[in-house]
From TrEMBL:
Top-rank taxon: Bacteria
This protein's name: Thioredoxin
GO molecular function terms attached to this record: protein-disulfide reductase activity
Residue intervals of the Thioredoxin domain: 1-106
Active-site residue numbers: C31 (nucleophile), C34 (nucleophile)
Deprotonates C-terminal active site Cys, annotated site positions: D25
Cysteine disulfide partners in this protein: C31-C34
Residues the record marks as site: Contributes to redox potential value: G32, P33
InterPro entries reported for this sequence: Thioredoxin, Thioredoxin-like_sf, Thioredoxin_CS, Thioredoxin_domain
Amino acid sequence: MSTIAVTDAGFESEVLQSDKPILVDFWAEWCGPCKQIGPVLEDVSNEMADKVTIAKVNIDENPEAPTRYGVRSIPTMLLFKGGEVAAMKIGATSKTDLTAWLNENL
């Protein structure tokens, strides 16, 4: 499984109503660190597909969700469980650190 793209219109149904934990990466096309972490998120999405869904929200195309959750810098990753934010990670990180962070918070 690879990452999924989520829009403001689908945020409620795809993220908040998800029966599985979902990591939302708030990113933008012009953001260097966002591009850096993209392949890491793809790898983690494939390796942890049974535990977590990884979604990406382009903040330029979808301004409502990042505003609602106070995203001030990107990349910002929010882990949602049961429709609530369970954890937040800001900035690009290594696959090892991201996987460890996810395992701690799932």
